[in-house]
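Sat 14:20. Reprocessing the chain from the morning session after the first attempt stalled halfway. Input below, unchanged.
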Amino acid sequence: MAQCEVCFRQCHLNEGQMGPCHARIGRQGKVVPAWYGELSSMALDPVEKKPLRHFYPGRQILSVGSLGCNLDCPFCQNHVIAKPADTSRFSCNTEHMDPEKLTKVALSLRDRGNIGVAFTYNEPLVGYEYVRDCAREVQKNGMVNVLVTNGTASLQVLEEIAPYISAMNIDLKGFTDAYYSGVLGGSRQMVMDFISEAVRICHVELTTLIVPGYNDSQEEMEALTEWVSGHPQLYGGGKGRDIPLHVTRFFPRHRFAAMNPTATETVYRLADVARQRLRYVYTGNC
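Finished this time. Tokens:
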């Protein structure tokens, strides 16, 4: 039996046993990525779609995703690749692409405005070894790397990838332990620790999806932005109040498919609350 050290669960896995993230597996006394090099998704996206508003605006980035996630968000828009249709297998096709091949694809898209590679769509850090290896190769070839993550990873994982990542968008999905543990199946403290370290080592923007009845109170947004604004020093200068925050509208998906979307008025109101403490607040999906 081997222990996984990626996230707060610290799973102990037997030979051939898959973790609840459906992305890490016990093999030969170690826990390794089950889908190394297997890509489920690939697209050339505007960098603003990550979303990043303060990092190479107007440019494109090659966005890639694999399989698996260590949260269980009931509103996941990418649940087909984040969680399998049953407990044994995913229902989507993948293409194997090693780090060198992915880098060649990224380089071939430079004439279309591509600046590098974004690891996104599923949760990239459940396969952080692939992210690390690809990002190192991409950086070596003069391009940049972006990570779009839920932040549910240990600081040891962050240390592994940090030298090769230029920017991150990190989900700060809410600001209560009840929401993180009871609804998302995660750890708010782990995400907070990840963010606090990440803002010191690269450009970081945050995203909060507003789900009606779950994290849409003024009090919670006040607490969230007070914590964000309290960071004393950012990568490249600035203070916590300079961290961009994307306040995003929920649309019904997955197990929350029967719900109503968030009222646009709620998103705008909470964005105004956030602007009391943060300089750069953007609304999304409105």
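The two ends are 48 Å apart (CA to CA).
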